[in-house]
Amino acid sequence: MEKRSSSTCSSELVEFPLLNEDYSACTIPWRHPSDDPNVTAPIELSWINLLLNTIPSYKKRAQTDSSVPDAANRAETFAQRYAEILEDLKKDPASHGVPLDIRLLCRLREQVLREVGFTDIFKKVKEEENLKAISLFESVVHLNDSIEDEGERLESLVRGIFAGNVFDLGSIELAEAFSREGMSFSSACEKLVPRPWIIDDLDTFKMNWSKKKWKKVIIFVDNSGADIILGILPFARELLRRGSQVVLAANDLPSINDVTYSELIAIISKLRDGEGFLAGVSTSNLLIANSGNDLPVIDLRRVSKEVAYHAIDADLVVLEGMGRGIETNLYSQFKCDSLKIGMVKHVEVAEFLGSRMYDCVIKFNEAN
């Protein structure tokens, strides 16, 4: 049976011990040293507008939150307050804190939602998608298990992570497509953009996969539904089968459709059998940890003590998803091997990388 770490709180957050000294969380520089600090820089403005454009979809989700009394009026209050904050930032980039970056914009959004009474506006859709993905888990695992060649099987698992990562309601385009027609995991696998991807270290990762047996792997996970269940869990199961201890680090509090620590415990409980096996593989070396995070992006200078403790002897860190592995931490170096893997789902990210929309990123770095 998988082990669990306890819940956390902001007062217990510490620095991830495997960071190199020159760590910087944010990947995309929003301003240059020569920019006037009193004037919003062009890239800052584009990201503020991106968050402004997400407000209608958040408002719509909030209006349908049956767990909150007077949800419609509270949703309207959220939309007005958050829009006002973003408009303030257009006029004065330091009006609500510094530095102005994706972490601040996301944190302000979550704060406003909670202030007006919403704790998890995506709860219902997460539950629905988790049930769908759980029903497909065995077939996805068996399909991967049937691939005899180790390199081909790893590539199939990696493609599954990309396909699962499509289920992201933080992207306006994907949220609208999901509302119209839902999402098919098999279709997402078939429609992945062809290689070479914009950052494509798959062959290097394959080579290291074949020659190394990582003893302990920490995976900072992303979304609910197909992402965690059909993408990450088959990958984690393969690591368990190879003898690795695997730590899955999930958010403390809800943010968009990211899977939380408590939700991940429930998912694993539904997937494993009575003897603690995950489709035939023991979960005795699987740990579900609370990352201490409450955003769709992550600053690894602020993680839970439990994750920091488990990181001490880890030899591979995986940051999955656009928020954790691309918008933040893409160029971060660690004292151990690291893998950043996710899909490009914002135009602003695509422009920075010079990539196509829905391009894939797999960046592998060996320890210095």
UniProtKB/TrEMBL annotation:
Keyword Membrane: no
Cofactor: Ni(2+); Mn(2+)
Protein name: Damage-control phosphatase ARMT1-like metal-binding domain-containing protein
InterPro entries: ARMT-1-like_metal-bd_sf (IPR036075), ARMT1-like_metal-bd (IPR002791), At2g17340 (IPR016949), At2g17340_3_helix_bundle (IPR035073), Type_II_PanK (IPR004567)
Stretches assigned to the Damage-control phosphatase ARMT1-like metal-binding domain: 55-361
Keyword Heme attached: no
One Pfam match: ARMT1-like_dom
Species assigned in the record: Stylosanthes scabra
Entries under SUPFAM superfamilies matching the protein: AF1104-like
Lineage top rank: taxon: Eukaryota
Protein keywords: Hydrolase, Manganese, Metal-binding, Nickel
Regions that span the bilayer: none
